Amino acid sequence: MADPTYYLDINGLSKHFGGEQEYNEVNPGIGITRETEKDKIVKALMAGYYKNSFEDPSLYLGGHLAKRFGDDYYLDLGVSGGLLTGYEDPITPMAALMAQLGKKDLGRLKLQYVPSIEAKEPSLLMMNLGIPF
Fold first, then answer.
1. Which of 23, 47, 66, 132 is deepest in the core (most CB within 10 A)?
2. What phi and psi values does residue 77 have, to the nearest 5 degrees?
3. What are the φ and ψ backbone dihedral angles of 38, each rounded to 5 degrees?
4. What is the reported pTM?
5. Is residue 46 within 8 Å of residue 63, measured between CB atoms?
């Protein structure tokens, strides 16, 4: 297994589709991700902070699992999930489809899509930038 890569995550934007209210779609925050890759399978643990869709502070702890396509330039496709604070329940579970576009030693753009579970809730697209260190 290769050595882990650590990323400084700059959390920033989201787009809500549907729902019954207006949402904050600028979500500044910061986090850290520890990522490993073996045989084109990417595993990661992540933790951080952001200003959520209701303008409240949120903490997150989670991870992702993905298949890597490419080498120096790459596309990762997979799933992510974790636990969030700052919403109606003290701790809220989250699961998402995930894609990452990146270049080794330069950085990556991560997109996560959370589908709507209830008609009154929106689906959500989130984006962050990861800078290796």
1. 66
2. -125, 130
3. -145, 125
4. 0.92
5. yes
Residue 61 vs residues 45, 84, 85, 120: alpha-carbon distances, Å: 8, 7, 9, 26
4 vs 44: CA distance, rounded Å: 9
| H or E segment to which residue 59 belongs | strand 57-70
State how far the Cα of 115 lies from the Cα of 97, in Å rounded to an integer. 8
Cα dist from 87 to 31, 93, 99, whole Å: 18, 10, 25
Copy the structure tokens of residue 110.
């991560």
| Residue listed under structure tokens 């951080």 | 48
pLDDT in tens, 48-104: 999 999 999 999 999 999 999 999 999 999 999 999 999 989 999 999 999 999 999
Residue type, position 93, single letter? P
The answer to whether the CB of 130 falls within 8 A of the CB of 7 is: yes
Alpha carbons within 13 angstroms on the beta-carbon side of residue 80 total: 29
Tokens of 87: 């919403």
Q: Which residue has the tokens 């910061």?
A: 30
CB 95 within 8 A of CB 113: no
Residue 69 corresponds to which amino acid?
F
